[in-house]
Amino acid sequence: xxxxxxxxxxxxxRKAFRSALKQGRYVIIEANSGQEALxxxxxxxxxxxxxxxxxxxxxxxxxxDRIRENPATKNIPVIxxxxxxxFSAMEQALAAGAQEFICKPLAKKEARSVLTLKVKNLLxxxxxxxxxxxxxxxxxxxxxLDDVTSLFNYRHFRERLHAEFTRSKRYHRSLSLVMIDxxxxxxINDAFGHQxxxxxxxxxxxxxxxxxxxxxxxVRYGGDEFCIIVPEANVEESVILxxxxxxxxxxxxxxxxxxxxxxxxxxxxxTQKDAGQFDSEDAFLKAADDACYEAKKIGRNLVCxxxxxxxIPAKEVVNLDASVGQTE
Length: 328
Hints:
Elements: E1 3-7, H1 11-20, E2 27-31, H2 34-43, E3 48-52, H3 60-69, E4 78-82, H4 87-95, E5 100-103, H5 109-143, H6 154-171, E6 175-183, H7 185-192, H8 194-211, E7 217-222, E8 225-231, H9 235-254, E9 264-272, H10 281-297, E10 303-307, E11 310-313, H11 320-327
Parallel strand pairs: 1-2, 1-3, 3-4, 4-5, 9-10
Antiparallel strand pairs: 6-8, 6-9, 7-8, 10-11
Helix pairs in contact: 2-3, 7-8, 8-9, 9-11
């Protein structure tokens, strides 16, 4: 059901318009001033506005300007209503951004029928546009997701890494990047088939997604690798997240019989603490990748941190048993 905002400082005219539209089964919200109308538009979902041309506080044209300059409201169709039945008034309303112009009062049946038809046509167009925009958003979201895990894909990862890295440098905010590499996936694929490996990747993707905050950006980086962009997180917070993930993946793997092949993860972390640490997002990404490679090289199923150009096991940075135990 569509919602119409009826804006007129005269209660008699508001009643007349409400009566003319009663057959349409619309939800009608009333406002008696331009200021009240703007407050309602910004707090409620409005599908169409019927706006009197002469009101106190804020003029009709000022209200139109405010509606059109806001991305969230700029597509709401507006019918301007005026007691001035001349071309100049209509031209001014349409030039200001209104879609239609109607004269009042609605004394004659023909005038009420014209109003009904214009409202019906504008809402039909608005509903079609809303549906197309919803489909476009769904399509855009799908192009950003990995088919196997429903985490974000590599293309979206590069876009968000660029945005977050730039923001971190500009505003001197902490930014962490976690690189996760599944151990022994090749051996599992060789022994049990790629379907088993795909299932494993999907399940691990779910573990990663469940452990992330709403502000984190979990990604299927490619193959057996995952990444998490962690805005506003320092080294200790990133280590706690990574160690919790490592333990959960290990526990999950212990419940699957791959004939002695362990399901674990090697994890690398890098944190940008100030703007001068890394020259580029690629250097930042390489630091996380190097830490992950080191974790795999020195034994697997470990977390390593890239700190000040050195790669250090996480257990030397944070008391893992105490810190992770508090958050589990």
